[in-house]
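Escalated from tier 1: magnesium ion holo job.
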Amino acid sequence: MAGEPLLKVQGVETYYGNIRALAGVDISVDKGEIVSLIGANGAGKSTLMMTICGSPQARVGSVIFDGEDITRLPTHLIARKRIAQSPEGRRIFPRMTVFENLQMGAGLDNLKFFNEDVEKIFTLFPRLKERQSQRGGTLSGGEQQMLSIGRALMARPKLLLLDEPSLGLAPLIVKGIFAAIKKLNQEEGLTVFLVEQNAFAALKLSDRAYVMVNGKVTMSGSGKELLANPEVRAAYLEGGRH
Amino acid sequence: MAISPVPASDNLMGKALKEALFAGVIAFLMFLLFVGIETYQDINNALVWRTRWTLLAVFVVISVVGRFVTVAFIRPHLDNRKLNKAKEGIPDLSEDKGFLRKHFLKFALILMLAYPFLSLLIVGKQGSLKYVDNFGIQILIYVMLAWGLNIVVGLAGLLDLGYVAFYAVGAYSYALLSSHFGFSFWILLPLSGIFAALWGIMLGFPVLRLRGDYLAIVTLAFGEIIRLVLINWTDVTMGTFGIAGIAKASFFGIWSFDTGSPTSFVKAWGLSASSVYYKIFLFYIILALCILTAYVTIRLRRMPIGRAWEALREDEIACRSLGIDTVTTKLTAFATGAMFGGFAGAFFAARQGFVSPESFVFLESAVILAIVVLGGMGSLTGIAIAAAVMVGGTEILREMSFLKVVFGPDFTPELYRMLLFGLAMIIVMLFKPRGFVGSREPTAFLKERKAVSGSFTKEGHG
Ligand SMILES: Nc1ncnc2c1ncn2[C@@H]1O[C@H](COP(=O)(O)OP(=O)(O)OP(=O)(O)O)[C@@H](O)[C@H]1O
Ligand SMILES: [Mg+2]
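Tier 2 regenerated the structure:
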């Protein structure tokens, strides 16, 4: 099935009660791509991420992953299809140590590859190695972000979903995290779909990108195209650092 | 000690005096009606009242002196200690904990195994009845219950206020099946656990989507439902009369502890008749059950299901996005916790020989939960200590008849059991808000991992 995307979101509408947060979204992510999604606060970016993971589920439309319809699957079964997420708010386990948090990420394979994989995470984020017996809740914001991404990677995902990995981090750390994502993508062919407020960095990193406004995708294109697009520049880049 | 300069201590005394007087006034106002005045029925059955000024005075004096000592001596002492510790840096993290602390578990186990014999040696057969039964068995039952509840509350973070329901299910399973069908203790013990676990799952289903306070209310209601069924389903449960004459446990069917029986334990061993042997036997059964509970808890914490429980307590949404089935995780937590409650219940019925709904009131759930919270949620050692202190303390209260000298002849110390609980709660929560043993032991360490990954590299996986 050449040309079939890894993830295909078709006409998805998601509601919170009666409020429509996604108003018919179409998105596709190919194997080995880095695709990003930018948009203003409240546009529905996080909602799309969560809809892919099945909580909340799409009321209309479908989510196809690896040729299989996962729209109506419960969240934990979607996760078992190897879609790993570093969600908004990081959601690490605060009373567990860094090491145990990483263990939780490797639960799908019952820790079979744990020792190999944890070394990889530690080379990617040496900070986590230093802090491995510290409780997750006492890590700094940036360290928690690294842990959240590291935990998602421990699941050996086919698709990695990142919701604002740069949130609240120092520019240098953002650089480090983006470099890590790029490296995983190039060396391991990891497919990444990320949401970003830091539009400049995200567009530079991505192969392709989507712009979301009020629950709808209004623009899409390669990262370079969107960076050059005057509308995008005006809405998401001017005034920012670039 | 040189931190507080001399003039400050004068100040301190003045301040302590002021605060003590203030405490006295508050105590006086608070206890004026509760303690100073007592109502009773006279010969004509009319309700009249009398005053108890001396008792009130005792209460006020205790508050004044207590406050004075706290402010003038205890608090500065504690502050100094903290300061000194802070100045020394943080040397507390050192590995060598001292011989006693390192081998604490071994000592505790040996002590528990030897306990009945020590008590026989020291206070003789008649005295041992009290020490083995009232202290030993009673405390261990609560240790077991609290450890069982700890799985639900401490590990999985599901606040259960109706835990006593499972204790009741276990006890009535044993009582009913034993009196109707004559099954032995050793068959009914596991059966009671299984029944309780099934009830745990039954409770689990409707509350799957609830958390925190909502969950607490529903579990509380569940506990009451079970108790009300026991009271009202009189055909089966005999209602408030309870079920009496429940068969004793036998020594694995070899010897019986009934005095008239041909296979009587005392006859077989040529001992003089005494109920203390049965008590000692029961002591070892409940000790074994406790050890089983602890062992299972410790093992499970290292297994995927145990890790899932703890993760569930921390963040349910994150759990799901890591592929954990939160439904089965919750149900297994309820079922496992309930199972141990059921074991304890069966044991309770066999020990008591009598069960009635009165033993399974909400207060029991509250006491068990209080023990878990006091001990530190999730910490087996802390919970065991809390159970020993709280339940043992209650038993000791019974012995404190000398207090009658202070408080007058009508004073019944047992009635102050809940006061003791409340006090302990307040004190522990003031100084150790997370319980005696508040910190959670990690289940996985770097060292273990190093060893494993070392062997991996040797095999060429690295
Ligand atoms: N649980 C919820 N219940 C009701 N409304 C919600 C809920 N979660 C999100 N919304 C609403 O849905 C809309 C989209 O929210 P979403 O979190 O997806 O925005 P976002 O694009 O991620 O924004 P941000 O950049 O601020 O994270 C918002 O208007 C928000 O108020
Ligand atoms: Mg968001």
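Residues 9-79 of chain B form one domain.
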